[in-house]
Design brief:
Radius of gyration: 11 Å
Strand content: 25-35%
Low-confidence stretches: none
Order of helices and strands: EEEEE
Largest sheet: 3 strands, mixed
Distance between the termini: 30 Å
Shape: globular
Structural class: mainly beta
Amino acid sequence: MSNTIELKAKDLNGHGGVFCPNPAADMKLWNSHPKVYLDVASTGEAKCPYCGTHYKLKAGEHVGGHH
């Protein structure tokens, strides 16, 4: 099961990424995979290698220093 989570720039951490599992994806930590860091800022999107959840920046969102 894979779904797409649209993120705002403010949803990313200081390094321009997110962790999966992520509360925005409505995942329960107790029944999911190990926590992994996904770099969203570099390309504007990232896909979790465990669950296939696709994280992407919403249209028009920009991360400081990354375009």
